């Protein structure tokens, strides 16, 4: 499975990458919209993960870029549980799943085990 992870957080990217590798997933960390577009057009992504705490992330633009791929990936977003409005906005933008950070971390193994959560 190929996946991308939009984040600037080295701790969560390291933890997520470790789980992805253990499950046989090729996870690439991206840090901007242009990298998302490149990855979406480069191959068949099965999964895109969006860290809503990433500075300057434009969730609607990222979702639109991912949805324009030949085979759109499943999009999972996460952020602090206290960011209720941002979490709801991510869902309204078209993310398939939106979780609190704790829920996301708790589901990492499942996320990469099946590719469909």
Helix-strand blueprint:
Blueprint (H helix, E strand, L loop, with lengths): L1 E5 L3 H13 L3 E5 L2 H10 L4 E5 L7 H9 L6 E6 L4 H9 L4 E4 H6 L1 H7 L3
Helix pairs in contact: 2-3
Helix content: 40-55%
Number of helices: 6
Q: Spatial order of the strands in the main sheet?
A: 2-1-3-4-5
Question: What is the rounded Rg?
Answer: 13 Å
Q: Write the element-wise H/E pattern from the N-terminal end onward.
A: EHEHEHEHEHH
What CATH architecture would you give? 3-Layer(aba) Sandwich
Mean model confidence by pLDDT: 94
* Domains, number: 1
Report how far the terminal alpha carbons are from each other.
13 Å
The largest β sheet comes out as: 5 strands, parallel
Overall geometry comes to globular
CATH topology-level name: Rossmann fold
């Amino acid at each position: 499975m190929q996946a991308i992870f939009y984040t600037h957080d080295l701790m969560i990217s390291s933890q997520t990458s470790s789980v992805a590798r253990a499950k046989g997933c090729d996870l690439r960390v991206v840090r901007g919209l242009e990298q998302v577009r490149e990855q979406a057009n480069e191959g068949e992504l099965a999964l895109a993960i969006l860290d809503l705490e990433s500075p300057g992330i434009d969730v609607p633009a990222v979702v639109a870029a991912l949805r324009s791929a030949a085979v759109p990936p499943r999009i999972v977003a996460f952020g602090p549980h206290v960011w209720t409005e941002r979490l709801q906005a991510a869902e309204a933008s078209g993310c398939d799943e939106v979780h609190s950070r704790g829920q996301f971390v708790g589901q990492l193994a499942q996320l990469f085990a099946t590719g469909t959560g």
